[in-house]
Amino acid sequence: MGYSHYWNIMGAAFWQDILPKLVEDSRKIIDASGVHVQYESDDESPPILDAIQGIQFNGRGDDGHETFDICGGDCKTDRKPYDLVVCAILLRAHQLAPSAISIRSDGNWGDWWEAHDLVSRLWPGATVSCPWEETEQTEESVGIKVQYVRFPSALPIRRGVVGIMVVSWPAVNS
């Protein structure tokens, strides 16, 4: 059990067209993040940032968990500091090719706001939106309806607030 992110890259076009740009942008993300990343948590070699080998890195020492590998499809960060870099790179990949990458997370969109802010600062003209679909969900229990409504990604109310919960129950006839 842990906190992980999952992605699926669809089509060779992603690698041919997007990976060189994503590698370049990943360097900017790492530099701007203030988070120290390296090849492995116990290997101080620099991260792999290469258009042929891909993107691979981890946090340093106890600040690392599983190695992020853009070819891997999942990474358990356990919310350690390098999670910011992982999320920002996945957001940038989604910006560059939204139809070529699908992303899910154990977290919600509010957990990604620090990465959202970083990507927004680095590419201020580009829209940063939730890369997975957080749709309205309803639950009914004992006649009480709980409805989760997600705000549009363009409408951040404040950091971490991404939606509201509406609770309603049936009228009582007396």
Can you walk me through this structure?
It contains three helices and ten strands; from the N terminus they run βαβββββαβαβββ. It is α+β, with helices and mostly antiparallel strands. The chain folds into two domains: 119 residues, no CATH class; 32 residues, no CATH class. The strands form three sheets. Strands 2, 3, 4 and 5 form a four-stranded antiparallel beta sheet that branches.
List keywords for this structure.
four-stranded antiparallel sheet, three-stranded antiparallel sheet, 26% helix, single chain, globular, 174 residues, alpha+beta
Outline:
This protein has 174 residues and is of the alpha+beta class. It has 3 helices and 10 strands.
Give helix and strand order, one letter per element, not per position. Answer: EHEEEEEHEHEEE
- Radius of gyration in whole Å, from Cα? 19 Å
Poorly predicted regions:
136-142, 144-162
Number of domains: 2
**Separation, N- and C-terminal Cα atoms:** 49 Å
Helix content: 25-40%
Overall residue-averaged pLDDT value: 83
The main sheet comes to: 4 strands, antiparallel
Principal-axis shape equals globular
Number of helices: 3
Number of strands: 10
Helix-strand category:
alpha+beta
Amount of beta strand: 25-35%
